[in-house]
């Protein structure tokens, strides 16, 4: 939290009483920031793989439901629309 935000909270506190919820919501609003993560990866595709991408996604869905965090992250990554379009044209992802 920066000095300006603290001064603003102190001025508001002097002028009117703040409830606990209002105080913490103001702090959270001042501290909130967004971030964007970019992922770069190499994708190896096979045209002659015996498993179809949709079949693999069903298995990955089942594994991610069981609570495996790595499988959930992989499922989220492979659910990307652009990636699904590439695999539909070029084959099955054998290495990500």
Shape: elongated
The percent of residues in helical segments reads 55-70%
Total strands: 2
- Low-confidence runs of at least 5 consecutive residues: none
**Average pLDDT value?**
76
Strand content: 5-15%
- Characterize the biggest β-sheet: 2 strands, antiparallel
Query: In angstroms, what separates the terminal alpha carbons?
Result: 39 Å
Q: H/E series, N to C?
A: HHEHHHE
Q: Which class do the helix and strand fractions yield? A: mainly alpha
Report the total helices: 5
What do these coordinates show?
The model has no long low-confidence stretch (mean pLDDT 76). A two-stranded antiparallel sheet has the order 1-2. The protein folds into two domains: 1-33; 44-95, no CATH class. The radius of gyration is 24 Å and the shape is elongated. The chain contains five helices and two strands; from the N terminus they run ααβαααβ. It starts with a helix and ends with a strand. The longest helix is centred in the N-terminal third of the chain and has 13 residues, at 3-15. The protein has 96 residues and is mainly α. The chain has helices at residues 3-15, 20-31, 53-65, 69-78, 81-90, and strands at 44-46, 92-95.
